[in-house]
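[agent] plan:
  1. take the single chain provided in the ticket
  2. run structure prediction with default settings
  3. attach structure tokens to the ticket
  4. add a short note for the reviewer (M.T.)
[agent] executing step 1
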Amino acid sequence: MRKFAAFAFGLAVLAALAALGAGLGHRFGLWDYRFGFQLLRGAAWAGLAGALGCLAAAVWAVREHALGALLGALLGLAAGGAAFGVPWAVIERAQAAPPIHDITTDTRDPPQFVALAAARRASPNGLAYGGAAVAAQQRRAYPDIVPLALGAHPPAAFELCLEAARGLGWKIVAANPAALRIEATDRTPLFGFRDDIVIRITPLESASRIDLRSASREGRGDLGTNARRIRAFYREMARRG
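[agent] step 2 finished; step 3 output follows
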């Protein structure tokens, strides 16, 4: 049983390392995200097998009063559970989100990328907005993604938006106070997908209207990432305002 416990522990740890490496490999340009997802899927099943094996080993260790074996089994159970749980959470998120990757508060006249236009054109998802079909899916899935009315004059609103973007850790690519437009990039935590953001401030007499657009450079869907990014920006604005 000790050999089985050691095998289960090793399988669980290797699965956890493979799950972590699946995303890091894409982040550092070692492979395409599609291969990364395949590796993540394989790691998930290996992690589940390792976790179940470690669970059986833990039961045996309790019966045999083998404290060292029990500790190893519990560590393996945690590693295997993580290797299975992370991909499972990704799958659940993918099923809950529409297969779109370009989210904006103004679907009729989306804010346009200028400084990031060349990078967008060179990316798999391109520069153009998807049009009415994408807008309809967004409205059904994210009815709360709407423009923000801010009780501040445009120059003050611009500075507040810039501070909020920096506070969220976005990389500012362009900040044009004359055009009242801010462009930035952000990366997802594990796979490091690059997403582009543009903020547009429109004067409203003594107030301002804030519109955002957050778009992924690759991938058909975004697992809801861009909508969550816009919500996070609005929360940051409310915290600062």
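[agent] step 4 note for reviewer: Helices lie at 2-27, 33-64, 67-96, 117-122, 132-141, 154-167, 225-240.
[agent] ticket updated
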